[in-house]
Design a protein that fits this description.
109 residues, 2 domains, elongated
């Protein structure tokens, strides 16, 4: 990009928001504005996270429920998870949570 363009752009963005600047390009600017602003917000709030193997991920209700549904069907899975919720701890992994739900289901029978 030419230095002059970048200098002008920098000067413009000191005076107005990216969203307002894009409106200066008419319909084309209006059509890309949500995408540009969304990407900038995503960059602003992005954090680096370390990917953990599934057996080391802290449990989430959605992940555990998805696994239980495959094992028991939707109605039974929701019922088993609801019964186990008071016993599940925030620092458990998905694997530990599923194991506890299954153990509790076995004691129920």
């Amino acid at each position: 990009m030419p230095d002059e363009f970048l200098a002008d752009l920098s000067w413009d963005l000191e005076r107005k928001s990216v969203s307002s600047w894009l409106l200066g390009f008419g319909r084309n600017g209006s059509s890309v504005r949500p995408q540009v602003v969304g990407n900038l917000l995503g960059l602003q709030f992005r954090t680096s996270t370390e990917t953990r193997p599934p057996d080391k991920q802290l449990w989430s209700q959605d992940d555990v429920l998805e696994t239980l549904i495959r094992m028991f069907g939707a109605l039974k899975a929701k019922d088993l998870l609801n019964q186990a919720l008071p016993h599940l701890k925030a620092n458990m992994t998905n694997e530990e949570a599923i194991r506890l739900v299954i153990q509790m289901a076995g004691k129920e029978n």
